[in-house]
Amino acid sequence: MKRTTGVLILFVLLIGASACSSTENLSVENVWSRPGFQGDNSAIYLTIRNPGEQGDILLQALSDVAGATEIHLSKMDSSGVMTMERKDQIIIPAQESVEFSPGGLHIMLVNLAQDLSVGDTYPINLVFEKAGDLSVEVEVKQP
Ligand SMILES: [Cu+2]
């Protein structure tokens, strides 16, 4: 390989790395959360893409902005009441994407340690079984 080609490829890789959060296989997009006041709860939504040949599993999400961070699934119970069920893990199948969105999967921020105002950003750490830790930036916005 010519030296100039190698430098160009490296440059493209660096640009790509700064544009989105990804590991070798997974990428995480459209990361946002609802605003909230200190002491309240909030929720993070995002899309995890897995274009790879191997499935992976989201084990937990960690953040300093809340007292606890839990993976939840909202669903309607038999009497028509919305409830939330805690999930220990979320499977991210090979060549599929999993969407966390209002009314479905979300990362619950329990007991916010600080106010989250529209326009704020803060990091969370997603822990995957195979891909390991992935740090992503959350933007606070109105649903
Ligand atoms: Cu929840």
Could you give a short description of this structure?
The protein has 143 residues and is mainly beta. The chain is built from one helix and eleven strands.
Describe this structure in words.
The protein has 143 residues and is mainly beta. It has one domain: Immunoglobulin-like. Helices cover 12% and strands 52% of the residues. It is built from 1 helix and 11 strands; from the N terminus they run αβββββββββββ. It has one helix at 3-19, and strands at 21-22, 27-33, 42-50, 56-62, 66-76, 82-87, 90-92, 96-100, 105-112, 121-128, 132-140. Strands 1, 2, 3, 4, 5, 6, 7, 8, 9, 10 and 11 form an 11-stranded mixed beta sheet that branches. Bound molecules: copper (II) ion. Copper (II) ion binds at residues 43, 72, 84, 106, 108.
Secondary structure layout plus pairing:
Elements: H1 3-19, E1 21-22, E2 27-33, E3 42-50, E4 56-62, E5 66-76, E6 82-87, E7 90-92, E8 96-100, E9 105-112, E10 121-128, E11 132-140
Parallel strand pairs: 2-11
Antiparallel strand pairs: 1-2, 2-3, 3-8, 3-9, 4-7, 4-10, 5-6, 5-9, 10-11
- In the CATH scheme, the class would be Mainly Beta
The ordered H/E elements are HEEEEEEEEEEE
Major β-sheet annotation: 11 strands, mixed
Overall body shape: globular
CATH topology type? Immunoglobulin-like
The unreliable regions are 10-19
Structural class: mainly beta
CATH arch. level architecture: Sandwich
| Count of separate DSSP helical elements | 1
- Helical percent range? 10-25%
The count of DSSP E runs of length 2 or more, i.e. the number of strands, is: 11
Total domain modules: 1
Mean pLDDT: 89
CATH 4th-level superfamily: PCu(A)C copper chaperone
What is the terminal-to-terminal distance?
49 Å
Question: What small molecules are bound in this structure?
Answer: copper (II) ion
Strand fraction: over 45%
Radius of gyration, taken over Cα atoms and rounded to an integer in Å: 17 Å
